[in-house]
Write a structure and sequence with these properties.
about 100 residues, alpha+beta, Alpha-Beta Plaits, 3 helices, about 30% helix
């Protein structure tokens, strides 16, 4: 499996809309998508961590290259105070 972890800071007051946008992606059928988990940090409620898992790197890269994924990213980016910090890599354990 393969995926990414993103550290994001949302704009003040954008939390509800940010979560709503995230939930809006639930019904999508993206090839190779396994799942995602989003955390809101206790120390800073404007900081979110997103972990996304795909079946493999090829599926991850194929999704990243689509115009649809870019459009989804732009919806998120409007609500962020800065660009996300991305950490891509092989998933060595997932349950």
């Amino acid at each position: 499996m393969y995926g990414t972890v993103a550290r994001m800071h949302i704009k003040p007051g954008a939390e509800a809309q940010f979560i709503e946008v995230s939930r809006g992606f639930e019904g999508l059928h993206v090839p190779g998508f396994v799942g995602q988990t989003m955390y809101r940090m206790n120390a800073d409620p404007t900081e979110f961590i997103l972990a996304v898992v795909f079946t493999d790197k090829a599926a991850y890269d194929a999704n990243a290259a689509t115009p649809e994924q870019h459009a989804r990213y732009l919806q998120y980016r409007e609500l962020l105070a800065a660009d996300p910090e991305w950490h891509d890599g092989e998933v060595v354990y997932h349950r």
